[in-house]
């Protein structure tokens, strides 16, 4: 089964997505997500100019060999652009393999380890009352787990909170927004938010929160300790993880579970965090961590240390990634939870999909491959629109972690 084409489709149905479509001489094709929020065209070029030409004529069933070729053959290993491009190829090849075998992807991986996949949604509010109302809406929709993010008094803007009533979308079209940040104001406020959640809703639902890289290790330790009474499912990205050893300080002070890894793109980004059990959930997902072939190695390594998966799943990873990730989630033995933020209607139209949401759980469906397709004619009606993630500055103007 030879690869005869490998084309990149860039489309913007509500937001930008990059998709790789690989076609074979047996008429079977597969697609993979190559979306890197704010740097979409870098991955599109990496694929078009450097990867696709090397795929033509290769055996599409040699998934592992192609992965090794693209990883080692590039010489310049790792990094988000490279690993997102490799992930798109990998996802497309697994999709082809499933279609060729007439099997859903999860069966190729080893079959279902559970009946369905628990997901968490995003409740956001400009203040506590609004955030609690959104939390209530998620409970009514059947979610068993909800992430809550809230505006902080006397801070102009905060991660995870839309300025209007529309769904939160971090990338702003045409500009790099500048947000201001105060760790002091945040640290004083957040325990009040969780107290309000538990006071109104009790402990029936899993409560999650994303710090989004904003604290120093000792501040993260302080926050984790201060919120222990609220029994979070996880505190996410409490501090930037380049210094994996920094998480020892957090672990010394708190039993609040820690989730890290949406920005990771290889096992090397988290090897120490896992083997020293400095985290509880690994947030890496298929699109930015080298696809099925690499993420399952990361998950297997994590399982040795009782670290569970918690795949990243915002609206800036395409429905293709969501579909493939749900197959991965259904199979992976050390599953934790899957993020599901939902998509603009236009995106769901461009990407017909077999996955379904019901009562707080999702299932990838039984379609061969990953069960997601792309309507290329419809995709062409949504041209790319330059959009960038914000930056954050401390109130004195210091450039900070967004
Ligand atoms: C966030 C992401 O979902 C999350 O946990 O950290 O929404 C992140 O801000 C975006 O993926 C950045 O593009
Ligand atoms: Mg996050």
TrEMBL record:
GO biological process: amino acid catabolic process; carbohydrate catabolic process
GO-annotated molecular function: magnesium ion binding; mannonate dehydratase activity
Mandelate racemase/muconate lactonizing enzyme C-terminal domain boundaries: 129-257
Domain of life: Bacteria
Alphabetical list of Pfam families matching this protein: MR_MLE_C, MR_MLE_N
InterPro entries xrefs: D-mannonate_dehydratase-like, DgoD-like, Enolase-like_C_sf, Enolase-like_N, Enolase_C-like, Mandel_Rmase/mucon_lact_enz_CS, Mandelate_racemase_C, Mandelate_racemase_N_dom
PANTHER family (UniProt xref): D-GALACTONATE DEHYDRATASE-RELATED (PTHR48080), STARVATION-SENSING PROTEIN RSPA (PTHR48080:SF6)
NCBIfam families for this protein: ManoateDhtManD, PRK15072.1
Protein's recorded name: D-galactonate dehydratase family protein
């Amino acid at each position: 089964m030879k690869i005869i084409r490998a084309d990149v489709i860039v489309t913007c149905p509500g937001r930008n997505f990059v998709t790789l479509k690989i076609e074979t001489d047996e008429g079977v094709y597969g697609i993979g997500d190559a979306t890197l929020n704010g740097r979409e065209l870098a991955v599109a070029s990496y694929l078009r100019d450097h990867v696709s030409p090397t795929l033509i004529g290769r055996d599409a069933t040699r998934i592992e060999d192609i992965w090794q070729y693209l990883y080692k053959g590039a010489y310049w290993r790792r990094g988000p652009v490279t690993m997102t491009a490799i992930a798109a190829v990998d996802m497309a090849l697994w999709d082809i393999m499933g279609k060729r075998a007439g099997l859903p992807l999860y069966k190729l991986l080893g079959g279902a380890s559970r009946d369905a996949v628990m997901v968490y949604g995003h409740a956001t509010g400009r203040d506590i009352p609004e955030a609690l109302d959104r939390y209530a809406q998620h409970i009514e929709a059947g979610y068993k787990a909800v992430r809550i993010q809230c505006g902080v008094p006397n801070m102009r803007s905060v991660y995870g909170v839309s300025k209007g009533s529309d769904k939160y979308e971090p990338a702003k079209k045409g500009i790099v927004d500048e947000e201001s940040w105060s760790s002091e104001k945040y640290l004083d406020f957040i325990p009040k938010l969780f107290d309000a959640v538990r006071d109104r809703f009790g402990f029936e639902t899993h409560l999650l929160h994303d710090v989004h890289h904003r604290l120093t290790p000792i501040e993260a330790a302080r926050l984790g300790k201060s919120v222990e009474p609220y029994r979070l499912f996880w505190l996410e990205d409490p501090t930037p993880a380049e210094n994996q050893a920094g998480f020892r300080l957090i672990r010394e002070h708190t039993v609040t579970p820690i989730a890290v890894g949406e920005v990771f793109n290889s096992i090397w980004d988290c090897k120490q965090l896992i083997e020293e059990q400095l985290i509880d959930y690994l947030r890496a997902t298929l699109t930015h961590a080298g696809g099925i072939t690499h993420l399952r190695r990361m998950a297997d390594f994590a399982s040795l240390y009782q670290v569970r998966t918690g795949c990243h799943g915002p609206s800036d990873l395409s429905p293709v990634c969501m579909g493939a990730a749900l197959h991965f989630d259904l199979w992976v033995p050390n599953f934790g939870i899957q993020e599901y933020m939902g998509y603009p209607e236009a995106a769901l139209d461009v990407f017909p999909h077999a996955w379904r949401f019901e009562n707080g759980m999702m299932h990838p469906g039984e379609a061969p491959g990953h069960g997601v397709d792309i309507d290329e004619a419809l995709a062409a009606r949504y041209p790319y629109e330059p959009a960038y993630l914000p930056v954050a500055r401390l109130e004195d103007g210091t450039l900070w972690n967004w």
